[in-house]
Amino acid sequence: MKKAAAIASILLLISLSLQEISHGSSASSLTGGNQDSEGSAAARTLNQEQDQEHAHEVHCSRERSRAAWEVIEEYLMPFVEREDYQISSKCRLHPDNDLFRDQEQHKIHVDINEWKCGYCKKSFRAEKFLDQHFDNRHYNLLNISHGKCLADLCGALHCDTMMNTKSRKTKCNPAAAARNHHLCESLADSCFPVHQGPSASHLHDLFLRQFCDAQTCSGKQKPFPKGGRKKTSVFYLAISILTLMLLPIFYLVVYLHQSETRKKTQELRRISKIGQKAKPS
């Protein structure tokens, strides 16, 4: 009986020890599982934040897009307005297809050294700082869903000519010139379909002459041969203001000179009459 009781006690202790060991292992596995889940959750959060940052990255040059729009405004739109033609929104030259158009329209050029944000009214010393402000604070206002990168059309629109960045020593690449010429012709076909009437046909031909003919390495054709929007010359404006300021002074000098001449003439006549009266009879 004593032996049986001793054996039973030993078995009971062994079973209790096994339960504690199994409980500890399960607890440790549960703790490890929690740590793994917490680590994976943190990793997912970090990846989501990185994805959000990368989602705001825009691989489109704001400067070249601005140059492309300046080319369109100066060398194409005057002729489009003259023909009273409405460019389709499917055309890549349409303002709605410019990624930065809304932000560019919210730039306020107060003075030569002052630019202001049209969204939050914050002021900056130069346009480049305002561009950085748009990238950092107002990236959510970019037309990412529908907008296209206007800088992609720079090859066809001669942006380098507008930006004065093309070196004269750079050799012309015939393959690049051919690609730009093909892009230019595709823009003419999509934006000004010849079957839409006389205005579209005329603008199609003008676009080819204005932009596409110069897409060669011969150097014979220059871009924008049809000219562009007439700008008021600063020199002409200064001369006009100076003329308006000096004209009254000129008339005043002429008036005073004539008055002085008239007085001298009257004085001479008076002296002459006095002399005649003073002669002895």
TrEMBL record:
Region forming the signal peptide: 1-27
Region of interest called Disordered, as start-end residue ranges on this chain: 25-59
Record domain C2H2-type: where: 117-138
Compositionally biased residues, Polar residues: 25-38
Classification via PROSITE patterns: ZINC_FINGER_C2H2_1
Presence of the UniProt keyword Transmembrane in the record: yes
Highest taxon above the source species: Eukaryota
InterPro entries referenced in this protein's UniProt entry, alphabetically: Znf_C2H2_type
GO molecular function: transcription cis-regulatory region binding
Alphabetical keyword list: Membrane, Signal, Transmembrane, Transmembrane helix
Entry's transmembrane regions: 234-256
PANTHER family: RE51073P, ZINC FINGER PROTEIN-RELATED
The protein's name in its UniProt record: C2H2-type domain-containing protein
